[in-house]
Amino acid sequence: MGAFSDVAGSATSTKKLVNLLRGITRPPKALRVQSAFSNTSFRWPNPSLLPTQLLDKATHNVLKDQNIAFPAMSYGPDPGDSRLRKNVASWLTDFYQPVDPVAEERVCITGGASQNLACLLQVFTDPVYTRNVWVVAPAYMLSFRMFEDAGFHEKLRAIPEDDEGIDIEYLRWEIRKSEHKAKASGNNKPRIKPSRPWGKIYKHIIYAVPTFSNPSFKTMSLRRRQELVRIAREYDALVITDDVYDFLQWPSSLTTRTMSLEKAVLPRIVDVDRYLDGGAERADADGFGNAVSNASFSKICGPGLRTGWCEGTIKLAYGVSQTGSSRSGGAPSQLTACFVAETLATGELQHFVYHTLQPSYCKRYRKMVEVINKELIPLGVRLPQTDREVVGGYFIWLTLPHPLKGAVLAQRAKEDENVVVAQGEIFEVPGDTEHPSTSFGNDIRICFAWEDEDMLAEGISRLAVVIRKMQGETGEQGTQPVATEGQAKNFW
Fold first, then answer.
1. Three-class SS of residue 348?
2. What CATH number does the domain located at 60-346 have?
3. pTM for this one?
4. What would you measure as the largest C-alpha separation in the chain, in angstroms?
5. Where is the Aminotransferase class I/classII large domain positioned along the sequence (predicted)?
6. Taking Cα atoms as reference points, which of 7, 66, 68, 58 lies closest to residue 35?
């Protein structure tokens, strides 16, 4: 991997590079070839938002106390540092406000969301018996490799989104067809994985980023979350949700003074599973539940920590802790987990998230959306879920007016205006793009987490220049009116 400064923009433009792509981790080969990117890591928050002083203080506090330092530098317990589990459980309780406090036993410390996705697949799937991995599309494209590594290369299926975040009827129809096929072929028990008392093999995996999704920016409605849990229970599916952006939220209004929110906008799917219709641990259930929340400190503290957590039922959390790699060396990221535990114990990380990260990203978001409303909406560019009261995350998804293509725009923007964006095709689920809503040839994704506010505005203005040129070449013109200040609130 190269340094983040290796991002390649235009080879000929004299304009300063505006990077609206950053947020991807190493673009796939197709994007690197078409857009001339180097093999570079792109999952970067702006360096000004990395809490180095906070971590410096926490590190010293941990290492100077032998009662904490010696365990921190040793093999950790399989479920992870107990202090971090307790502190995470407490923060989750405050933020999501479930009916009952989140217990430490529901939390397992991980090496980050990506590492733990791989662990979940190791423990809870069988490459033969598990019928399909259902991925809400557009999807975080680097998850595909993890599913392929787990043996699901030919079993990846795309589930389109609708206005509420997932097309639940399409999923219901397709998963029913998958079950008929499995029964007809005699696929009625795990073939590869052994039976283990601390684990189970699910028939289906459903993968989603339900809140401020990467890349679609959508948030799944509460109704859809409930329907998804019911489908998961009916067909013995495990819903794996990447809840990595939940803490990065703010009001959608472009004019309100409030720029941070300390309570979650919706319960997570794991919370829905915990309580809906008798709950995950109801009398007739096996106790593992049908949902797991996969989370990380990468977006709220720093990706180099390689530390995260997952939450599920007590049985499921314990099963995660028994992954072979954890049993071999104890919890991943033991030392950094202890550093992060210190930041939560003092309340400094929570304060940093609410009073630095949220307002900073809110300002960047507002600046970008103001220019989108002014320059892109009149050209016919469309935005998702324009009636939400709360938004967040890193990204905005844009649908281009017909007949413009995202790949062409991305290439022209780079060459002509020295702006880099992500084209929609890279977020398509491999091998399953026949449904019109699982193909994203006329979409792009832009990121507001990296560039400063002025450069975000400049980048959108340059994109508008390219779109106007392309429309002039095709004879197509935008039909949307310019958004007024009052209308801007309705858009978001």
1. helix
2. 3.40.640.10
3. 0.91
4. 71
5. 71-463
6. 7
